[in-house]
Amino acid sequence: MSTPEAPALLSRRWILSEYDTDGATRLAREAGLPLLIAELLVARGVRSAAAAERFLHPQFEHLLDPYTMLGMRGAVERIRKAIDARETILIYGDYDVDGTTAVVLLKTAIEMLGGVTCFHVPHRIREGYGMQGEVLASFAGDGVRLVISVDTGIRAFAAAEAAEILGLDLIVTDHHLPERGAALPKALAILNPNQTECGYECKHLCGAGVVFKLAQALLESWDGGRARGKILPSFLKMVAIATVADAVPLLGENRVIAAIGLEQLQRPVQPGLRSLMEVAQLDPSRRKLNPVDVAFRIAPRINAAGRMDVATDVIELFTTKQAQRAQEIAVRLDRLNQERRDAEAGMLREIVARLEEDEFREARCIVIDGDGWHRGVIGILASRIVDRTGKPAIVIAHDGENGSRTAHGSGRSIRGFHLLEAIESCRDLFTRFGGHAHAVGFSLPSDGVAELRARLCSYAAARLSEEDLGSPLECDAVLPLDRVTPAVFSWLRRLEPMGMGNPEPVFIAQNVRVASAPRYMKEKHVRLQVAQGPRGGTMAALGWHWAERVQQMQIAEGSVIHLAFKLRENEHPEFGGLELEIAGIFPAV
What we know:
Layout: H1 8-13, E1 14-16, H2 21-31, H3 35-43, H4 49-56, H5 72-85, E2 88-92, H6 97-112, E3 116-120, H7 133-141, E4 146-150, H8 157-165, E5 169-173, E6 189-191, H9 207-245, H10 253-265, H11 271-279, H12 291-308, H13 312-317, H14 323-354, H15 358-362, E7 366-371, H16 378-389, E8 393-399, E9 406-412, H17 419-424, E10 432-435, E11 439-445, H18 449-463, E12 473-475, E13 477-478, H19 486-493, E14 507-514, E15 519-521, E16 525-531, E17 538-543, H20 547-552, E18 560-570, E19 577-587
Helix pairs in contact: 2-3, 2-4, 6-9, 7-8, 9-10, 9-12, 11-14, 12-14, 14-16
């Protein structure tokens, strides 16, 4: 079904996945799967019947042993000692979804065991990212002797040295990449699957995922039956939110986390979570929640606290037992999210106008900076530029007075361009930096931005050709419309939850006939009736924000097109059924 020869034009605009045909055929036979599903599974690294069973039916028992993570035993022993001695434990977090949910998880787990905690989440504008020695000194002065970092710390060399001088025991939990070629920060224990010699199988946990493994080890050592039966599955609600928000691959253990966590989100108990869903207009009693709901409804409102104000609101939201207080915070986060959207829109208009300048049109890496830009939204804007230009992008905001101005940058990348390695080539310019292949953050003196731009543009020019730029549409299989059936759709649903690493399949139908004139909706969207094959039946194809492109291609009744699509189910009682969501179109000429 997926192997018919595609037209040459397809190969230039769309990428059709290549499959291990023999492996897929074997998996289909051994696991009793349709060949199409077997092909999709093989593309996701699933090659045996047992692996297919685990992928299609994720269970709590599929979670990995936390003690296979390097440093886990030492971390658990020190935390249990602090709990028994009633030491106050400082949890040092980060201000995004991943960092704040990680604080909530670890705080809850330790306090369940009778421990005493305090926490610190830095203010994005006043403090910036990462642990600070002066903050540690303040807590040490209050009697703290154990510090646990969450979603941060793997590059916190100065803070780790400060902790040692202050007599603090430091446990680092993080998922970001360690600095290449450098030793790790001094700490009693470091939990990070990406550190050298760590044999933990899932290398792509988010920060909250790493914290969950610590909580799992702690709680199972206390009461394994109770922990596994109720507490840990409930914890996976928060971990699923962070896993989706941080865009880590939904494969392996992350798939188990997302699947169980989304199921748990159908039954929100904690007042803050219920209130957040209400302001996000999500009603789990009416329909099943999915990663899109988390990524575009829940996560932005959590992130808004750190981007626009103080992320400590999130900690209170998810720990309060008072419904009225939870509602107040949720409404506040909703308002901050709207403020974030307004600020983002204004900055984006300015950036779009500047992208027309020759400097940016010719560059293969966009490095754009501005005064008065809100640091809380520069990462989002970098993503917008990548979507618009198909080039890696870094957005930089300046603050401070002349002579002592600081530039804060956030970057996003494209396929095949490792952004952390790119900025590591400019490491001498930064006061701090970090991230991974697809996203980075950094600070530097403002007078170094011109040098940074020149170096990064030169670096990108040497590594990216014109063919590397852009975002070609990645398609999974050729699927003629007369083979689209409810049975196929039912099998595709078993691939959920879908997201990073396990994307929703995109199919190609070639030489599709447009059966009637396009119907335009709100001047932005379009609805086509399309047909293919000898049966002659038509299917609806909806194109969100496709109206202008369909008009430009002069598509009309009788046109023949190549169509890339995703499968959808319209649940309307009168005209429901399977329909297509347009992912790509071009005329078959």
